[in-house]
Give the backbone structure.
Amino acid sequence: METEGQDVVPGMTPEMARIPTVHEDRREGSQLGSVLPQGSVSSPSTGSSETPKAEKAKSTSSETEKDSQSPGTAVDLEAAASDQSSLSDISDSEDSDHDTEEVLENRDGIADIRDRDQERPAELEKRRSRRLSRRYSRAKDVNLVTWDGPNDPENPKNWPFKRKWAATIIVSTFTFISPVSSSMVAPALTTIGSEFGITESVELSLVLSIFLLAYAIGPLILGPLSEIYGRTIVLQLANLLYLFFNMACGLARNKVQMIVFRFLSGLGGSAPLALGGGVLSDLFVAEQRGRAISIYSLAPLLGPAVGPIAGGFITANTTWRWAFWATTIADGFIQIAGLFFLQETYHPVLLLRKKNRLVKETGNTKLHTEYERPDRTLGKTIRVACSRPFILLCTQPIIQVLAVYMAFLYGMMYLMLSSFPSLWTGVYGMPIGTGGLNYISLGLGFFLGTQICAPLQDVVYRKLKHSKYGGPDHLGRPEFRVPLMFPGAVLVPVGLFIFGWAAERRTHWIVPNVGACIFAAGQQMGFQCMQTFIVDAYTRYAASAVGAVTVLRSLAGFGFPLFAPFLWDGLGYGYGGTMLGCLAVVLGIPGPFLLWKYGVKLRGMSKFAAG
């Protein structure tokens, strides 16, 4: 029996013939890679057709379809192509001519997801044809375990709003407390140096910045571990590592113990930075994810500003050791809250649990999920996870430009954090506790940058998507994240100029703080836009792309404070701030223009980028 307007492939059952063609599928506005209607689909063996519910599901907006989970039972094939699972796409060797032995990964919390909106038309047709033939063979797999339809309540993207944001808040709190520890010791550096006999300024700065070196290494290990065991267990155990060694820092008796314990606590504290964004990608669809990531990314920037405020008063009124013990106590409460409110969101782990439950209930040991790969070992996962970020960093111009600028912004933040104590207590003669209050300017700038950027990111993206820039098909592009980079790139050098010359002239204390606030707001705006741009541009390899910039920025956060004393002593605050402001102009101003004008061309030349 033949379906009108559709040829029947020899050997194909009538039920398979009812699967819409590529062109019919395009008219339905379904997402790239989707070949089945968005509804309840019966097994080929039953011969039943689509239900009315299937027709209703087809009419949902393509924007929602792009990130919502596809329907599924043991025979539902759409979930195999849904963008909730990076692992499925990576495991398809036919989709990659340049990497036949790929291993799934997660870096900085961003899962590998292909953005089907950004594929070129020719590639779209080829990819559809390959997947259509693959799915004919998969249609007979009655043992495939997927989500039970697009509205499956077990799918984290379908969780209630309160449950999603409870998980978001817990992850953000994890991400907040670790950076607080990274900078809380800043006001106490002089006191620690006196007690441990540290006379070299570089060694003293190392006590502060060694924490950031661990931030560069931790995600390379913790990200792949989360691919094997899930996000929650890795987050909880890594946080226990941080808690233990952060408490040990308060018990240190010499500078060697202090530096070693700080490094180990940083390894544990890097887990939320590595995995937190992945939790958000599990929970939110793309058009909501910009706001969630903006709010989440505020934590690692606000934490370093809040830490010195508390650390200054603690050091002035008790002992510097309580700076570590106080954060350990706070982290203990967060750990307990996480046990109750942070549930597993990683789709492969959840589907594996579902499969195990069904095996117990039915006794069918042939049940399996999309993500079970016998050749996927921890060693291979870590090896690929460690190598691909550096491959991207060495071969991709987009990654190189953004990584250098993000590293500069991140390093500048820690340079300021390490410079504030000497400025406010040395130049302005403030007590340690009062001097610590000046960190409020950085925190206020981070907050303002988030409040400006978070609501606007998704709004601007949607408007450009439905404008002439989105084309007749209203396709999303990574370049739609660029417009908000422009004001951020301008605010950063302006803030540095004001801060440097106000400190040089010893003006009223509010003026350097105004400069610091402007710098922090611009940094936050640029940081968020660049991170979302990278995720959109390198969708399939987003984990590696974000990992590349994470390693570089953490190294900058480690290194910048080490030369801060020499910078201010050699050039002074005025010319030192001017030099940094000029670097911000050179690195930051041309970038948005070039990405907007040449971004599509650069992505087209890349075998890693989408489209």
User: Anything to note?
Assistant: The beta strands are 106-107, 110-111.
